[in-house]
Write a structure and sequence with these properties.
By secondary structure, the chain is an all-alpha fold. The chain contains six helices and no strands.
Length: about 190
């Protein structure tokens, strides 16, 4: 795959806006992927420890059973953010194939702007959910359920940022059909 500087036109490849957007995209992608992988590993290890302890002692620790409740929402939201950032989500191709580059560029900017505004609002609403669940705690770990619901804020905020990054990419890329192919290699 080529770098963005080889696929963009009109000298826009070196534009500060595109470099900033790609940098933010890399951070979002890396952070979300790290959260997803860490969540899977911690869930697996906690449950494995619980099984081993139960096998040898006939009683469990208790707290490992709460780990999936705390981390599974983070795993799901991180996966969604990675999908949004990499363009690995379901897309309707029938309409896209009938539009010329300019029309498609306008459509993609509109869609990403709509997604950004919608998910920014959902991120704002998730702050209310976090405030409501702050008083509720898991009995064994003593951690607040707000920790699990904070995954909503991360996910909705991550999708908002990904949409804004994608707007810059759509504007700056040569072919809007390949907007995710013009991103740095490990984004796509």
């Amino acid at each position: 795959m080529t770098s963005p500087s080889n696929t963009l036109i009109d000298g826009k490849a070196g534009s500060p806006a595109l470099r900033v957007a790609d940098g933010i995209g890399l951070v979002i992608d890396g952070l979300a992927a790290a959260i997803a992988v860490a969540s899977i590993i911690v869930i697996f290890l906690a449950l494995m420890v619980e099984v081993i302890i139960r096998y040898f002692t006939s009683s469990g620790l208790g707290w490992p059973n709460e780990v999936p409740n705390l981390l599974f929402p983070w795993l799901v939201m991180a996966g969604i953010v990675v999908g949004a950032q990499r363009g690995s989500h379901i897309a309707a191709e029938a309409l896209r194939s009938k539009l010329n580059d300019t029309q498609l560029r306008y459509l993609l900017v509109f869609i990403n702007l709509l997604v950004a505004v919608s998910f920014a609002y959902l991120a704002y609403l998730s702050l209310q959910v976090i405030a409501i669940t702050r008083a509720q705690v898991f009995p064994m770990t003593g951690l607040g359920q707000a920790w699990a619901y904070s995954a909503l804020l991360f996910g909705f905020g991550g999708i908002t940022l990904s949409s804004l990054v994608n707007i810059v990419r759509v504007i700056c890329c040569e072919d809007p059909r390949n907007v995710h192919n013009s991103a740095p290699e490990h984004i796509t």
